[in-house]
Automatic annotation (TrEMBL):
Name of the molecule in the record: Coenzyme A biosynthesis bifunctional protein CoaBC
Key words of the record: Decarboxylase, Flavoprotein, FMN, Ligase, Lyase, Magnesium, Metal-binding, Multifunctional enzyme
EC number: 4.1.1.36, 6.3.2.5
Region of interest (Phosphopantothenate--cysteine ligase), ranges: 189-398
Length: 398
């Protein structure tokens, strides 16, 4: 990350203190930060706190000396790569939506050509008020961005939507907006992630150890590079990434249906999911009670989704599979690549305990249809995603 500049507009609300946390995290990424506070924001936290964390002057008053306001709001408007309003009250949203510019923040927003994102925080009833919602829709039509608030218990005691999005989510949006490399713009990418489950009875199922981290990392990387992303995910503990189409599934059959619904329109399909190969021969709709002896369950083969896709795939589509192996890594991966008619397979050895399923890192090998292999060092799943998409782009350009 190099020399990005972010202007933070802070408006008055109890969530103001969270903007301090955001600024400190942005600074850790070497992003230069300047702050404009509205008069009501100053009632919650002093400008000095923002000044100390941003290590820059904080602008509060439009008529602040020594600079004349015309110059300052224009120069501030020209300065940033991105403007974030955190927290954004109903008041600032309403003002900008209706062309009112009567203080430093609203005049700067009006004058800037940089992208402006609002992270609203307010009482649920206010947030749901049709006037506020109408203003938000209007701003979206004009190209302003929103980082949606979370739901939860609000400062006023009400429960509902209106809680400022988590600082880490705002940070993630910020980093991806700043780092935007649009080389996948115009491509539709279908990704699968996580395990599938095979229900046995109303309370039991079998599944596997897939955490979903690899597929989610690919989805985020593809989104950040401008692709239109559909992520079909089995049950995981990961929050769905923003800005993509997310389809949650449980079983192999549900994953197959969701994947097939989106397959024909996809340019690239990456199957990182650990799909169950077997399902129970006879699902019991009553809970299975314990008996005296052993319990024997019979499982039958379920769909090989990737193989189905390999049979259907068109010339221009790129199909990528994963091979998680405990032995004969290369041989098994090559066999899967050929059997399933893939363009590329990502092979990894699951026996290592410092990489693999639940880990943030992995050590993988890419093998292409033309039998070229690339051995990567151990790296984060996000970095693997980057290299994988680079490799996919190389294939698509040939
Ligand atoms: N896959 C799939 N449907 C299945 C099984 C696997 O779509 N029923 C996909 C996975 O998403 C992965 C690739 O096929 O991209 C290889 O998965 P893996 O579990 O390693 O291999 P299998 O084909 O199941 O073979 P085996 O279990 O014998 O290793």
């Amino acid at each position: 990350m190099n020399n990005y500049k972010v202007l933070i507009g802070v408006t008055g609300g109890i969530a103001v203190y969270k903007a301090l946390d955001l600024i400190s995290k942005l600074r850790k990424h070497d992003i230069e930060v300047k702050v404009i506070m509205t008069e009501s924001a100053e009632k919650f936290v002093t400008p000095l706190s923002f000044q100390s964390l941003s290590q820059n002057m904080v602008t509060t008053d439009m008529f602040q000396e020594p600079k004349a306001w015309e110059i300052q709001h224009i120069s501030l408007a020209k300065w940033p790569d991105l403007v974030l309003v955190v927290p954004a009250t109903a008041n600032i949203i309403g003002k900008v939506a209706n062309g009112i510019s009567d203080d430093m923040l609203s005049t700067t927003i009006m004058a800037t050509k940089a992208p402006v994102y609002f992270a609203p925080a307010m009482n649920t009833n206010m947030y749901e008020n049709p006037i506020v919602q109408g203003n938000i829709s209007k701003l979206k039509e004009y190209g302003y961005g929103f980082i949606n608030p979370d739901s939860g218990r609000l400062a006023c005691g009400d429960v509902g939507a209106g809680k400022l999005a988590a600082v880490d989510d705002i940070l993630e949006v910020t980093l991806s907006l700043l780092n935007k490399n649009e080389d996948l713009k115009g491509k539709k990418i279908l990704i699968t992630a996580g395990p599938t489950i095979s229900p046995i009875d109303p309370v039991r199922f079998i599944t596997n150890r897939s955490s979903g981290k690899m597929g989610y990392a690919i989805a985020e990387e593809a989104r950040d590079r401008g692709a239109e992303v559909v992520l079909v995910s089995g049950p995981t503990n990961i929050k769905p990434p923003y800005g993509i189409k997310f389809i949650k599934v449980n079983t192999n059959e549900e994953m197959k249906d969701a994947v097939l619904d989106n397959f024909v329109t996809s340019d690239i399909v990456i199957k990182a999911a650990a799909v169950a190969d077997y399902k129970i021969a006879e699902y019991s709709d009553k809970k299975i009670k314990k008996g005296e002896g052993n319990l024997n369950l019979e499982f039958t083969r379920d769909n090989d989704i990737l193989k189905i896709l390999g049979e259907k795939k068109s010339e221009s589509q790129i199909l990528v599979g994963f091979a998680a192996e405990s032995h004969d890594l290369i041989e098994n991966a090559r066999r899967k690549l050929a059997n399933k008619n893939l363009d590329l397979i990502v092979a990894n050895d699951i026996t290592s305990n410092e990489t693999g399923f639940a880990s943030d890192d992995n050590r993988v090998i890419f093998i292409t249809k033309s039998n070229e292999s690339t051995v990567l060092d151990k790296m984060s799943k996000r970095e693997i995603s980057k290299k994988l998409l680079d490799e996919v782009m190389k294939i698509s350009e040939n």
